[in-house]
Specification:
six-stranded mixed beta sheet; single chain; alpha/beta; Rossmann fold; six-stranded parallel beta sheet; 434 Repressor (Amino-terminal Domain)
Length: about 325
């Protein structure tokens, strides 16, 4: 790999001083148009990029937005796609960041922000943060956050209504013994999805059997054992509502390992509608939340805050809907 092109390389190739190149890069006066054009041509030819740190020291702005996630998985990948589409014409660049295995656990957003804010990014979108303090030092927008604090710009979907719709779908198919595999205990979305499940069951005149309510943590690996336990019960459920698609796909895998067919022996529904859900076997019935739109809305909020514009709503909530596929059937 070749060495990184420096500002001195540009100056030497263009036959000007480093100070002149600096003026051209920063749009300052005092450089003839012909010289400025020549320097810009050399910059393009050499592929020179000024460092974000140097840029921030000069202007106190990097024009870079950070998308900070605990880990890269299907949900955050869809958020990134939506964010990237909005940034195309804004003049901002996008930095996606995760600390990997070391970054998981409560408080990861504080660690990430302390590393990046001020010199690398002007503002941040935090995806499923555990906790975010209102004074983060830079503008911050949270997607699907932990509860609180009030006043923090947030974007989420209508998790409560989505869970009601998903549960009602199973009830309409004749299922009454329905299990619920919940998500991360620290996230508001998880709490609302369980609340919606319970609300729909109560509206149908059914008492939730607490033995059928388990925690899956929104992760495939942590869902498998709770589902095994559910399917080993003498009076096992006829349907399982998993709080996200990854958990639902893990549920289908465990059911198959137990010799059960989906949806013949067990109906399974998820939540999110990530691209992988349509390719599962069978294709997954799920509650759709507009994940890419959530990423776009969060970036729209953040750029408005960075540019000093008026923000009419600090909390954006997007609708959810049912997507019927092949993993659910009449009891």
């Amino acid at each position: 790999m070749g060495q990184r092109v420096t500002i001195s390389d540009v100056a030497r190739t263009a036959g000007v001083s480093v100070a002149t190149v600096s003026k051209v890069i920063n749009g300052r006066y005092g450089v003839a148009q012909s010289t400025s054009s020549r320097v810009q041509e050399v910059i393009d030819d050499l592929g020179y990029e000024s460092s974000l740190v140097a840029r921030s020291l000069r202007s106190h702005r990097t024009h870079v937005i950070g998308i900070l996630v605990a880990e890269f998985e299907p949900f955050s990948a869809e958020i990134l796609k939506g964010a990237a589409t909005v940034l195309a014409d804004t003049g901002y660049e996008l930095l996606a960041y995760t600390g990997g295995l070391q970054g998981r656990g409560a408080g990861w957003e504080r660690r990430y922000l302390s590393r990046l804010s001020g010199t690398l990014i002007d503002g941040a979108v935090l995806v499923t943060p555990t906790v975010v303090e209102a004074d983060a030092g830079i503008p911050v927008v949270a997607i699907d956050p932990h509860t609180g604090p009030t006043g923090l710009p947030t974007v989420d979907s209508d998790n409560l209504t989505g869970a009601v719709i998903g549960t009602e779908h199973l009830l309409e198919l004749g299922h009454r013994r329905i299990a619920f595999v919940g998500g991360r205990a620290d996230l508001e979305s998880s709490r609302l999805r369980e609340q919606g499940f319970r609300q729909a069951m109560a509206a149908a005149g059914l008492v939730v059997d607490e033995v059928l309510v388990r925690a899956g943590d929104y992760r495939k690996e942590s869902t498998r054992e709770p589902v095994r336990e559910l399917l080993a019960l003498p009076d096992r459920p006829t349907a399982i509502f998993a709080a996200n698609d990854l958990s639902a796909m893990a549920t289908i895998e465990v059911a198959r390992e137990a010799g059960l067919s989906v949806p013949g022996d067990l109906s399974v529904i998820g939540f999110d509608d990530i691209p992988e859900s349509a390719q599962s076997d069978p294709p997954l019935t799920t509650v759709h939340q507009p994940i890419q739109q959530m990423g776009a809305a969060a970036v729209g909020l953040l750029t408005a805050l960075l540019d000093g514009g008026d923000v009419a709503e600090l909390h954006v909530r997007l609708p959810t809907s049912l997507v019927r596929r092949g993993s659910t059937a009449p009891r």
